[in-house]
Amino acid sequence: MFIDVVPNGRSAPAVLLRESFREGRKVHKRTIANLSQMPPALIDGLRALLAGGAVVGGAYHSLEIRRSLPHGHVAAALGMMRKLECEFSLN
Prior knowledge:
This is Transposase. By secondary structure, the protein is α+β, with helices and mostly antiparallel strands.
């Protein structure tokens, strides 16, 4: 399946969800849905999904980091500082 944009004379182009298939040696296209009335952002998301990607719309704007746990070398350094009872500040 793929999204096809078809010129439509002087009016807005038609945005179609299509499927291609073979009959013998000929390749045909079958229209599954007309997506012309959908918002462009939704069409781009659908196009990415059809290409095999994952779509997370607006996640970076709607999420907030409140706390981040140390890992790797940072966790090792903090652990050693705690064992040695060193004073430290994470500001």
